[in-house]
Structure formats: C-alpha cells, structure tokens
Design a protein that fits this description.
Layout (H helix, E strand, L loop, with lengths): L8 E3 L4 E5 L5 H8 L4 E4 L4 E5 L2 H9 L4 H10 L7 H13 L3 E5 L4 E6 L1 H6 L2 H6 L3 E3 L2 E5 L3 H10 L4 E3 L27 H11 L7 E5 L6 H12 L3 E5 L2 H14 L7 E4 L9 E5 H4 L3 H7 L15 E5 L6 H7 L6 E6 L9 H8 L2 E4 L2 H6 L5 E9 L3 H9 L2 H9 L4 H11 L5 E4 L3 H11 L3 E2 L5 H13 L4 E4 L14 E4 L7 H9 L10 E9 L3 H9 L1 H5 L4 E3 L3 H10 L1
Length: 566
C-alpha cells in the first residue's frame, strides 16, 4: 500500500506524474519536475506530466542523475513512489552512456561499451551498416555515424559520441570588447556558461542544443561559438529576415568582415567563410531539383570545409535537412531554440543528430534577473457570431476550426484590449490572411504577411521600432526571428491548431527587455463553446511548463452575461 504524504505530485506506475496546481508547493515542484518530464495536458487543476526516455536522457545531459530525479518525486510526492516507476527511470538512465562511439583504426569508428549493452544490439542490423565485430565492440564505417546514432536512440540505447570532429577551414574572428559608439561588450554569465557547455572537450562537447527564450541572446551564443572555434561556419535559419539579423549581429559583435559573410537565399547565392542560409531554400529536395531543373541547394553542405554548422530555430528543422545532418556527424553542430517542442514528433532526431540539450535556463529565471520582460498571459473568450453560428454547426471539423478562428466577434475583443493598454506598441497576430486583412482595415493598421516585399517589411519594422507606427497586424511570418524589441502587447486572434511551439514563439516577440516598465501582455482571443477552446488549452502547455499562468480576462461579453444574469 502506498504511504500517504502531503506533496503536490502523484507519480503513477506508468510514468505519468500528476501535479496538483492548487497545492501551495506547486510552483516549486513544477520547476523541479519540468527538468526531466514534459507537460502533456491539464484537466482542471491536475496537470499531467510524462517521464519518457528522451526527457530522462536530456536531463542526464544537463547533469541530473537518476537519484536526483527520484529525490524530486519523493520530496514533492503525495504518496510513496511506485516501485515500477522508479525501476523504469533507473533503467532508462542506465542505458544512457552505456555505449560510446570512439575513433577507430583506418578511418573507422569503434562502438564500445558495457558487455551487456553490446550483447543487446541486433547483430543483423549492425552488419547491415557494414559493422564488423572487433575486440571491445564493433568497428563502424565513419559515414554511417548518423544512421547508427539515430537507430540507437530508437532502440533506447543512446550512444555517447566521442569520435571527434574535423577542424574545418580556419577563420580569424574574435568577439569584440567594444561596440560602435564605445559601448563595452561582454557575454552575460548564462551566455558564457552555455558557450562553455558547447565547447567543452570530451563527452558530447561539440554537438548539442542550447535552449533560451526569445530575446535572451541565442544569436550571441552562436557568434561566440564561431569566435571560440575560429573556423568556417554554415548558419541555417528560418528566413530572409533572420538572415539579415544574423549578419547584423555578426558584424556588430565580432571582428568578421562583411566580405567574409555570404547570404544564400532565393535572390543571392554567396558562399563565403561564414554563409547564412534559410531552411526554406535547403528544403528543396534533390529529386525535386532534378525534376524542375533548379539548383540542388543541399550541395551547400559540401561547398566548403565547414568547421561548425549552426541550426538556428532548430525546432523548425525540415526532414531533408535531417537527412543531410545524418551525413555530417564529423562537423560540430550547434542547435539554438526557445523550445525543443516539435509537433511532428521528431524530437528524437534532434537529440541523435544535432545532439542533446546542453544548456537551458527557465524563462521565469531570466525574467527574475531582468534579462527578459515580465509577460502576463490572458485569455478572452467570445461567443460565436450569430452570422456564422448555423454554418458552424453543420461544418466538418476543419471548417469548424476555421470558422471559430475567423469569428468576426473577435474584432470587438481586439479593440477592447487596445483601449485597455493605450500607447503600447502592439502586434495583432493571426493565422488566416482574410481575417487579418479585415482587422487591418478596421484598425487602420498595415498588414505584414509572407507576400509582403522584403523592402516594405524592413520599412514597417523600422517604423514600428522607432515608434512612428504603434500597431502592426502580422501573419505567421512574425512567429520566427522578427526583431521588434519595443513590442509590449500582442493579441493572438487565431493560430495553427494546438501548436505549443507557435504559442511560445509568439509570446517570444514580447520578451526583449524594455527600458523603464519592463512588462508586456499577451492576449489570446478564443471562440467559446467550440473546438478552438480545446486547442487553446493545448497551445498553452509549454508556457505553463515554464511557470506562466493564463488568466481569464473579462470582456464586454462577460459583462453582458452578468447583466443578463442580474
């Protein structure tokens, strides 16, 4: 019989953990639990987390032991920990590091490790990779390194990759001590720690992921890694706007010359010692390129002797780039992201091919230190507009979601939010272009979307950042790498289903620290009584995991209900 205690956590035999959000120690327990478990849903005040092999292995890469995790479950547990759950966690941890990949002879690699782990490996599979048994393990062809690592993760036996990396083409570059205008420059302590985790020798140094929220300076960590390693680098990022931002940061914070930076986009094909390219152009596969006679942009990976590949917004990495990354395991790889959440279920591929999570600092901790803005998250629910009510009831699921997302009643809620927060530079963010164009007209605000020309886009950013423009209606293009540091209010009117990743990225637009009042507000407007409310709950999971809460904000609709009730 389980012994009853009085903590907020209820660990179950199947690896799930319930967190009682109403418990006085809930926030403290959540901060500890989220280091090795993932929030999956929140029915009422009982939030459900899941401990998985991947969450345990990432925690191990950050220095947690099985005893550390079990102590958290015991310290905050409401009941004694089920023996099955403790044993399963220890088994997952035991398998992490039981195998090592080392330099072998004649250009081969050696898969070595504990005898019991080597005996568990499928012999037929290893032989299909061209592996041969040798004393102490298996000899593996170097070009199968990525394939081996990916499959070992799927088998539940992640390998510690100590096979080393090529140095790459030498590049003379350093971080500046002083910026333009005479301002002193140095990395923040957490940025320096993230850099040291990536560059450390031995272990898994030289490959892995740094997780920091938007506005915390992930780009600076990448620039510092480039300066520390002093080698040619390929930077992959989300789009043309981000490419230009990377170039500006490198020129501002390092001694690299503009002639040494290349932009590889649809318009430019510059390949230089540091080349910055977009995922979109690389995602054009080889077969598609042959069919339409265009350039196979994947050749970019072999165009120079890169010593470092930086994957900015690594959670966006498309499948074709994953396939190429499997062949690039001898090159150092740095992933940068605000969230490792992937809606496509390929988090295992990030772990095996880019590397484990090497550093993460909780959003709330950075907020407490004043490095990012303090954000209040609020949800407004509005009724479905009478003009689409009947159509909604008769529609299929996909159409229902669109009708709820584009609900005309949301316009009044947006105007109400703007009235509550006068003077704040504001983003109205949505998924459906027709809805955004209507809102742009009603609010007398410009609309920025994927088809907005680059020059016009840059001009809108300039006007917004200068304060000349205080309201901007934006589509999904604002989800990623848009530098609008003065934005302190965002109103989300529609989104991509239940995407936790998108929610985090949109809130990230507000996180740049503000002079004076370092606060910001994120509102999400949802149509009540529809499927959109279910997806909204799922979208909010990542931020809840980070310790944020979504308050229900009263609106004119709530006031009307009260009046009707009276």
């Amino acid at each position: 019989m389980l012994k009853r205690k009085n903590g907020p956590l209820i660990a179950q035999a199947d690896g799930t953990v319930l967190l009682d959000d109403a418990h006085p120690a809930a926030e403290e327990a959540r901060a500890e639990l989220s280091r090795f478990a993932e929030l999956v849903k929140r029915p009422g005040t009982m939030h459900q987390y899941r401990i998985s092999p991947l969450s345990v292995w990432n925690a191990a890469a950050l220095g947690m032991s099985a005893d550390d995790m079990l102590q958290v479950l015991s310290r905050y547990g409401r009941y004694s920990l089920p023996a099955e759950a403790a044993e399963r966690l220890r088994q997952w941890m035991d398998r992490c590091g039981g195998l090592e990949l080392l330099p072998g002879t004649d250009g081969m690699l050696l898969l070595a490790g504990e005898s019991k782990r080597l005996l568990e490996l499928p012999k037929e599979w290893l032989e299909s990779l061209g592996a041969e048994p040798v004393e102490g393990g298996w000899q593996i062809p170097a070009d199968r390194r990525g394939e081996l690592k990916r499959e070992l993760v799927r088998l539940g036996m992640p390998v510690l990759d100590k096979a080393g990396y090529r140095e790459g083409e030498t590049l003379n570059v350093k971080l500046r001590d002083e910026l333009s205008g005479g301002r002193a420059f140095r990395l923040r302590d957490y940025q320096q720690e993230a850099l040291e985790r990536f560059c450390r020798q031995g272990g898994q140094g030289g490959s892995g992921v740094i997780v920091l929220p938007c506005g915390a300076g992930k780009t600076l960590v990448g620039a510092a890694a480039l300066a520390r390693l002093g080698c040619a680098a390929l930077v992959l990022t989300s789009g043309s706007t981000s490419i230009r931002q990377w170039k500006r940061e490198l020129l501002d914070k390092t001694t690299i010359q503009e002639s040494e930076i290349g932009e590889y986009t649809g318009e430019l094909k510059q390949i230089r010692p540091v080349t910055i390219a977009s995922y979109q152009i690389l995602a054009q596969g080889r077969g598609e390129a042959r069919k339409n006679g265009s350039t196979d942009h994947m050749n970019l990976f072999g165009s120079r002797d890169w010593g470092l590949i930086i994957y900015d917004e690594v959670h966006l990495l498309p499948a074709p780039v994953f396939r190429l990354t499997a062949e690039l395991q001898a090159t150092r790889r740095l992933g940068l992201t605000a969230t490792l959440v992937r809606e496509d279920g390929r988090a295992e591929d990030v772990f095996s091919l880019i590397g484990p999570k090497l550093y993460e600092l909780p959003w709330r901790e950075l907020e407490r230190q004043g490095w990012i803005a303090s954000v209040s998250c609020r949800e407004i629910r509005v009724p479905i507009c009478e003009s689409i009510g009947e159509k909604y009831e008769q529609a299929d699921l996909k159409t229902k979601l669109r009708l709820a997302g584009e609900n005309p009643a949301k316009a009044a809620a947006v105007r109400e939010v703007l009235e509550r927060h006068p003077g704040r530079r504001t983003l109205v963010i949505g998924h459906y272009l027709d809805q955004l164009r209507v809102l742009g007209t009603e609010l007398d605000a410009p609309v920025l979307c994927g088809s907005t020309p680059a020059a016009e886009r840059e001009e809108l950013f300039r006007r917004f950042n200068s304060g000349e423009l205080t309201l901007l209606v934006v589509s999904r293009v604002a989800n990623f790498a848009v530098d609008l540091p003065e934005a302190s209010l965002a109103v989300q009117v529609s989104g991509t289903f239940g995407s936790r990743q998108e929610e985090a990225q949109r809130i990230g637009r507000l996180l740049r620290p503000k002079a004076g009042d370092n606060s910001a507000y994120f509102y999400t407007v949802v149509t009540s009584g529809t499927k959109e409310t279910e997806f909204a709950l799922k979208r909010q999971l990542f931020m809840l995991e980070q310790g944020y809460r979504y308050e229900r904000a009263e609106s004119v609709w709530d006031e009307k209900k009260k009046e009707e009730g009276a």
